[in-house]
Amino acid sequence: MTRRGARRHVTFVVGVVVTLGLVATAGVSFVYTPVDPLAMAPGERLQGPSAAHPFGTDQYGRDLLSRVMTGARTSIAVGVIAVGIGAFLGVLLGLLSGWLGGWLDELFMRLVDAVQGFPAILSALLFTAVFSPGIAVSMVAIGVAFVPAFARLSRGSVLELRAREFVVAARALGAGDRRLLVRHILPNTLAPLIVQATTSFPVAILAEAALAYLGLGTQPPHPSWGLMLKEAQNFLSMNPWFALFPGAAIALAVLGLNLLGDGLRDVLDPKTA
Amino acid sequence: MRRYVVRRVAAFAVTLLFVSVLVFVVVRVLPGDPAELILGTERDPATAERLRESLGLNRPLAVQYAAWLGGAVRGDLGTSIQYDVPVGRLIVSRLPVTLPLTLLAATFMIAVAVPLGVYAATRYRRGADYLAMVVSQLGIAVPSFWSGLLLILFFSVYLGWFRSGGFDGWASGVWSGIKSLLLPAVALGLFQAAVLVRATRSAVLDVMREDFVRTARAKGLPERRVIALHTLRNAMIPIVTVIGLQLGQLMAGSIVLESVFALPGLGRLALGAISARDLPVVQGVTLFVATTIVFINFAVDLAYAFVDPRIKYD
User: Of B87, B107, B90, B266, which Cα lies nearest the Cα of A121?
Assistant: First the structure.
């Protein structure tokens, strides 16, 4: 392995380890947290790190380590579902757009341009005005923001592949549109789509935290890293630790997933690496 | 060229139409009855009916949409329920916070990221390059509102150099205005700067592999001149494109930072409108911000074709 290859290998391994750590933390939090993440202890409010509370406590005396652990679940859940929504709608739109071509293609792509004008925060504002804020609004708003990237990617693949010999051959053998798209074209676009999904995941985690912070996403008392930071802001001068741990958890998770995404791109998609 | 521009403008108009449809559908169609939503649980039928009448909700949806769009095109976005003033005027009154914040963040982002990215490219695969990449990898991982909180913690709580939030307006002097926007602009620009460092580095590296750069070196030009005259000018096209797209991101991001630093901008206007069920304001602000972002993307697209003659105009 070359020196460059070895370095990439190292960052990829770091990415995998941190990501596994994130998933493991979320998994463990279902069966074990040091303290019940919702249990209040008024006598132990806003404490710094100690043996009993390694990350300290919040304004209700709740154990921050337990809450940060449980918050991992929220991040992963929102990440998975938001990326799922974005990938499903985006791929559907992209495949149809590229396959149908003509004025429908033009129209679909203008719709995609329009959706690009709505970053997750803006859609969340809009949805929250109509529906009550909550984790579902986060998932949909973030998912919608991912649609353009997935749509462009899959449309590009269709345009590139539709005239290739194996597609023409399958058509000559009598395959219909749906079969051509689902059995022949889609499998050949999977690698860049997987890379896109992996790189979207940390973006979703950042967006979930921002929405929860604004009060548009996950609602109390559910532990979400963004929500914890919102609560911490009121007590910055009394307990700075309160703002440090949830923020560090976000940064670590995003860093790990970004490294994982970079590594996967090197492996799966050598053209863009 | 003219044909290209005409086509882009037509596409832009269609995109804007879609933007307006999306906003209209979410606010006016999805909830079923906006009047009930605005009045909440303690509504009586007579009030709801009056509100429906005044908002024009009794008319067919297509007519409502046409009326709303017609108004929006002329700058009439309806009247705020909470403040009883035109939504357009409310938006304009908040721009002196959101726009300078966005521009200040953009200035910070460019001033930090472009030189760093160019430097990293010239030190390709050496210590400084690795360091720049590690720092930018960290920068991409830190959410802007958390860096905002950390900046408050350090510069306001610990050092006491800046206020932890609030904005007195520009009337009390330009410097005092900028001082209130400085920390939020840095927090907002930091994340995008990390993205831009990487984009700049790879754009410069791409150009440095070109034949004309080798020729410039071969004829004995000092490296500084090769970078400044031959490399940077050509690398600027993709860099400027990325910066353009980031402007929209910065504007959306300012909504979050306004909340962290209690700044009375567009984001706070929209958030306040949500708790007050002030639908026309939410609708107006989202339409305004989405339109601005789509416009920036369109302008970048168009500028790209003007700047780079190699782009095909079909």
Answer: B266
**Contacts with A132 from chain B: Cβ below 8 Å:** none
- Mark yes or no for CB contact B142/A243 under 8 Å: no
Omega cis (within 30) before A221: yes
Q: Cα angle vertex B208, ends B203, B210, to 5°?
A: 105
Q: Do A202 and B286 touch (CB under 8 A)?
A: no
β-partners of residue B79 are B86
pLDDT at A56: 87
CB spacing of B294 vs A116 below 8 angstroms:
yes
Q: Report d(CA B287, CA A236) in Å as an integer.
A: 35
Cα B46 from Cα B50, distance rounded (Å): 6
Tens of pLDDT along A49-62?
A: 888 888 988 888 89
Residues 6+ apart with CB under 8 A from B313: B1, B3, B4, B305
The Cβ of residue A83 has, within 10 Å, a number of other Cβ atoms equal to 23
Rounded (10°) CA dihedral A240, A244, A247, A250 = -160
**A35 to chain B nearest CA, in Å?**
26
- Closest Cα in chain B, distance from residue A111 (Å): 6
- Determine the distance from the C-alpha atom of residue A13 to the mean position of all C-alpha atoms in its chain, rounded to a whole number: 20
Contact B18/A213, CB-based, under 8 Å?
no
Q: How far apart are CA A159 and CA A217, in angstroms?
A: 38
Measured between beta carbons, the chain B residues lying within 8 angstroms of A116 are: 293-294, 297
CB contact under 8 A, A113 and B11: yes
The whole-number pLDDT of residue A2 equals: 57
Q: What is the CA radius of gyration of chain A?
A: 22
Percent of chain A scored above 70 by pLDDT?
Answer: 95
Chain B partners of A247 at a C-beta cutoff of 8 Å?
142-143, 146, 149-150
| Reported ipTM exceeds the 0.85 cut | yes
Which residues have CB under 8 Å from A26's CB, separation 6+? A69, A72, A73, A75, A76
Mean pLDDT of B141-164: 90
Q: Do A255 and B23 touch (CB under 8 A)?
A: no
Residues of chain A short of pLDDT 70, as ranges, are 1-8, 269-273
How far are the Cα atoms of A120, A129, A180, B254 from residue B187, in angstroms, in the given order? 19, 27, 48, 10
Tell me the shortest Cα–Cα distance from A47 to chain B, in angstroms: 17
pLDDT digits (tens, 9 = 90+) for B230-278: 888 888 888 888 898 899 899 999 989 999 999 999 999 999 998 888 8
**Using CB atoms, which residue from B145, B157, B252 is nearest to A122?**
B252
Whole-model pTM: value is 0.89
**Are the beta carbons of A119 and B249 separated by less than 8 Å?**
yes
